[in-house]
Amino acid sequence: MGSNPILSAMEINGICKPEFAPVRDAFEANFAEGLELGASAAVTVDGEFVVDVWAGDADADGNPWQRDTIVNVYSTTKTMAATCMLMLADRGELDFDAPVARYWPEFAQNGKDGVLVRHVMAHTAGLPGFDPPITVEQLYDLEAAAANLAAQAPWWEPGAGSGYHALTQGNLESEILYRVTGRRMAEWFRTEVAEPLGADFWMSLPASEDHRVSDLERPETPQTLLIAGEEIEVGELAVRALLSVNRTGDEIATREWRAAELPASGGFGNARSVARIHAALACGGAVDGVRLLSEAGARRALEEQTDSLDRVLGVRLRHGLGFGLQIGDLALAPGQMFWGGMGGSLAVIDLDARVSVAYVMTRMAPDALGDPRGLRVIQAALATL
Predict the structure, then answer these.
(1) Partner residues linked to 337 by β-bridges
(2) Is the alpha carbon torsion for 177, 324, 280, 205 positive or negative?
(3) CB–CB of 142/150 below 8 Å?
(4) d(C-alpha 73, C-alpha 70), whole Å
(5) Domain spans of the chain?
């Protein structure tokens, strides 16, 4: 059945196969309820796009969201870093059960010789922040950030439960990949993942692409930590972790942030590019003749690593290798995994149904888990199946 152009009162642009109309309807409802500024959503089945829609404005000046508009997706970037690590493991170049120090000898300092690569992949390495705290400029310096993490002692026993590594997971994975391959992750991802798949996703954005970037609209006033509508009591460890990089939030609009390699939070893309890359995982490691890894290698992401009350987020986190299986009350079915980014971007991969779903937006929500927009799109897609 062919794809049909979409036109509505909101002018939802793109394509949607008729049987996936509920996904388009859910996407449009976000705009009808005044929740959106600009956004995109995409669904693939067996690697084929059955939904690829976008609408609204890319910025407060009213410039429209275009087909090739991209935006900083924050922690949805983590799924791209995880894909790189899964590929290295599948190629036999990386052992998730090996100590990090096997590849990065300096990391063994201060009792970290027992930290395993899989601990890094599941937020259980005990290094959720930088100690001592660092500046954003130091975050951009990969060697300085790596040295900070290598010198630290674990904040708790590695492997004994999770504590969300909001920024540090990306630096840890990036340095491991660098020690294994001799190449930086942003460049490795571009040549080994994004370019072969024709995916418009960037871990380090060149200046030539700046004209396509949508400016994120942040909440107007500072917010307490909200998860599913509830204010979370942030403990001492969480405060240390979340404030260990001196940021204002304005950095994301700078050339320095866009150019930096920040595999935990600095990726730029849209729903199409996120869904395209995830489609390779959903389809057993390959899509359209491009094989990233074996089916067994892709399914390793589903191997449960932790199921605990997260020490930073304050909610239950059940995590596989680089992807979430449950956070708070949001639990997925067997064969499904997900992750999202601050402000609302969200993606789900179903390895049994060979489906990927992605949602990316401009207007950021203040709630870390209770934003209905992406969840509405995801649920509509999975219900349609």
Answers:
(1) 349
(2) negative
(3) no
(4) 9
(5) 4-384
Q: Which of 40, 75, 162, 174 is catalytic?
A: 75
CA-CA-CA-CA dihedral for 279, 283, 287, 290, to nearest 10: 110
* pLDDT at position 230: 56
The closest of 85, 110, 86, 115 to 99, measured between CA atoms, is 115
User: Catalytic residue at 75?
Assistant: yes
The answer, yes or no, to whether residue 68 has pLDDT greater than 90, is: yes
Contact 133, 95 (CB under 8 A): no
Task: Name which of 52, 13, 74, 68 is nearest 209 in CA terms.
Answer: 68
Strand pairing partners for 72?
268
Distance (Å, whole) CA 85 – CA 174: 9
Contacts of 15 (CB under 8 A, 6+ apart): 3, 4, 5, 6, 49, 51, 52, 53
What is the assigned CATH class of domain 4-384?
alpha beta
37/132 Cα distance (integer angstroms): 38
Bond prior to 128 in cis (omega within 30° of 0): no
Which residue carries 């300096």 as its tokens? 106
Report pLDDT for 352: 98
Residue pair 282/356 in contact by the 8 Å Cβ criterion: yes
In sequence order, what DSSP letters do the residues of 273-341 get, joined into one string? Answer: HHHHHHHHHHTTTEETTEESS-HHHHHGGGS--EEEE-TTT-SEEEE-SSSEEEETTEEPPTTEEEEE-
Alpha-carbon separation of residue 383 from 40, 230, 272, 351, 373 (angstroms): 19, 27, 20, 16, 16
Distance between CA atoms of residues 1 and 16, nearest Å: 11
Q: What is the mean pLDDT of residues 316-339?
A: 94
45 to 69, 80, 190, 275, 385: CA distances (angstroms):
23, 19, 24, 10, 9
Q: How far apart are the first and last CA of the chain?
A: 16
- State the pLDDT at residue 329: 82
